[in-house]
Amino acid sequence: RSNAEKFEFQAEVSRLMDILINSLYSNKDIFLRELISNASDALDKIRFLSLTDKDTLGEGDNAKLEIQIKLDKEKKILSIRDRGIGMTKEDLIKNLGTIAKSGTSAFVEKLQTSGDLNLIGQFGVGFYSVYLVADYVEVISKHNDDKQYVWESKADGAFAISEDTWNEPIGRGTEIRLHLKEEAGEYAEEFKLKELVKRYSEFINFPIHIWASKEVDVEVPADEDQDEDSTESSSKEENEDEEDADKGEDEEEKPKTKTVKETTYEWELLNDVKAIWLRSPKEVTEEEYTKFYNSLAKDFSGEKPLSWSHFTAEGDVEFKAVLYVPPKAPQDLYESYYNSNKSNLKLYVRRVFISDEFDELLPKYLSFLIGLVDSDTLPLNVSREMLQQHSSLRTIKKKLIRKALDMIRKLAEEDPDESTDKEKKEESSPEVDEKRGQYTKFWNEFGKSIKLGIIEDATNRNRLSKLLRFETTKSEGKLVSLDQYISRMKAGQKDFFYITGASKEQLENSPFLERLKKKNYEVIFFTDPVDEYLMQYLMDYEDKKFQNVSKEGLKLGKDSNDKELKESFKDLTKWWKDSLSNDNVDDVKISNRLDNTPCVVVTSKFGWSANMERIMQAQTL
Ligand code: ADP
Ligand code: MG
Asked: Is residue 9 within 8 Å of residue 17, measured between CB atoms?
């Protein structure tokens, strides 16, 4: 084309496309749900804009917020179009090729190790999955602010953009034309496309239509000089005509008709746009919740969410919400913890999608949750910025946190492995067994989030502390809660004992534990770097304090003969303190914490523990 401008794909994008176009991966179906998901995003965007500016939608067909799928069987072209926001020339250049998303290289890496494409949508590169089934793709797009353009590429490292002077004007939105590969013939079959839409795009909030062929009976005038023809027509017609048979004989001059089969096309609706969150939780099946999770999270790995909570909040601020605990933490959950405010909650106002970039809905430490909030109280026709200031958001947030923590607590309560009751622990039935071990799974994936919550959220600190798990000198490889620890405390024990370090193995032989072990006290192992910070915030729980056994002043219940010991060793401790200069130690004291080891160096009560020194050193290196 004479007016085409050529561009090169950014290197990582090009690599990804190379892998995709040559992929022997068998599940190529995913491209369709990625395209539909993009179409749905584009529709959400234009609908949102139209809230404040009615004219953006235009009129007639343009105002219909829908998705259309069409097939050209002969040419093997599959097109998916939407009447969404569309892309300007700039958008096409940036979004489809020159600016790589941060997830691109992470996804390429993942592909090379696992070969699993199912999570492509989560990495923000879903569009390129078109090259699983097509070797040539055209994107025709019209944005309100620009002319109609065509983007095209054969995945050969480059793409071209031209002003569209040859296709019909599409009004507004985007049409993706896939020129299917030889071996992707199955996607040129209507029934296959219908099945895929039904399977994967059930929860898309806009109608999806397919240009479907239909065999219909049509009445055509019978050929006049072949009167007998009427008897050859389909049996169906004969039956229908039976009643009229007598009449027909009388009125011979009436023109005779016959029925023939004809193929016609019409738009067939494939989904029924169900807002699952508006229904009563009792009416929604487990399978529906799972599928809704898949579509919200763009997680089609086949793993079920660990848990969910679907509820309605009433009162001053009304909203409905569905929250999910995903089966796995995303790879970068904690890497990007402090510098991103990525939210996984979609905000709707009266069924209209507003944003998925609101960090006011949940605190950072709960950003691993996936879900949706639909509020009736928030105003519809204001900008996102204004909405961000709305006072109802604080109430929504408070309730969401409460519900989220309840849901996590239930995960533990329903897990038979978590029970202290022997009978409950050993109970077995399909339902109970399904829940066995689920809290440990949760803890392994998201335990750090709970700890960060204790550090950051003073209001819910106690609730979060209940969710804490750790290993101890007596846990035998299992996880213990604070409540369990309390239930096993020795008579007269007032505090929790803990020790921090790099690993359990290293701590197990620590001289600090000798005496406590001998006296049968349980000691908590805190081995995660975040634990040092955690212990600065976790002051007490159920009126019990936390004592670091490697710090000065450890008290194990009653110390009866302390005074006498101090007196009798006075000379020794004095000699010792004088021998070691004051720069080296603060004090030398008699203590009852040891058993076999003659002496230990401990940290002062208010100083950093040895482990904290280690962590700080690692950070400054
Ligand atoms: P993601 O959807 O996660 O952003 P994709 O690779 O699926 O990643 O799409 C890349 C970008 O291309 C989108 O963010 C969007 O800006 C643009 N895009 C894709 N399809 C459409 C469409 N149908 N309408 C408008 N923009 C689109
Ligand atoms: Mg996408």
From this structure: yes
For residue 364, which of 430, 296, 420, 448 has the smallest C-alpha distance? Answer: 448
DSSP symbols for 392-441: HHHHHHHHHHHHHHHHHHHHHHT-GGG-SSHHHHH---HHHHHHTTHHHH
Q: Taking the model in full, what pTM does it have? A: 0.79
Element at 321 (helix H, strand E)? strand 319-325
Contact 304, 289 (CB under 8 A): no
Neighbours of 552 (CB within 10 A): 16
Contacts of 72 (CB under 8 A, 6+ apart): 78, 79
Amino acid at 451: K
Task: Give the CA dihedral 220, 222, 224, 227, nearest 10 degrees.
Answer: -170
CA of 356 from ligand 1 middle (Å) equals 15
- Closest by CA position to 290, among listed 280, 276, 279, 278: 276
What per-residue confidence (pLDDT) applies to 306? 97
The reply, when asked if residue 82 is annotated as ligand binding, is yes
User: What is the DSSP-derived secondary structure letter of residue 549?
Assistant: T
**Which pLDDT score is estimated for 226?**
54
What's residue 235's pLDDT?
47
Give the per-residue pLDDT at 536.
93
| Packing angle of the helix pair 529-537, 438-456 (nearest 10 deg) | 60
* Structure token digits, residue 297: 């999270």
Task: Give the three-class secondary structure for 266.
Answer: strand
Averaged over successive runs of 10 residues, the pLDDT of the chain (621 residues) comes to: 92 94 86 95 94 91 95 96 97 94 88 85 93 97 98 97 96 97 95 92 92 90 61 47 50 76 92 88 94 90 94 94 95 72 84 86 93 92 83 93 97 90 84 91 96 96 96 93 94 91 90 87 94 93 93 68 72 82 75 73 74 72 47
> How far apart are the C-alpha atoms of 365 and 236, rounded to whole Å?
67
Which DSSP helix (H) or strand (E) runs through 525? strand 524-526
Measure 34 CA to ligand 2 centroid, in angstroms. Answer: 5
Residues enclosing ligand 1, CB less than 6 A?
A: 34, 38-39, 41-42, 82, 84-85, 87, 95-96, 124-127, 174
Give the closest residue to 462 by CA, choosing from 388, 384, 542: 542
Identify which of 32, 33, 41 to mutate to test ligand 1's pocket (most ligand atoms within 8 A of the CB): 41
Helices (H) and strands (E) in the chain, counts: 22, 19
Give kind and range of the element (H or E) at residue 547. strand 544-548
Q: Say what the ipTM of the complex is.
A: 0.99
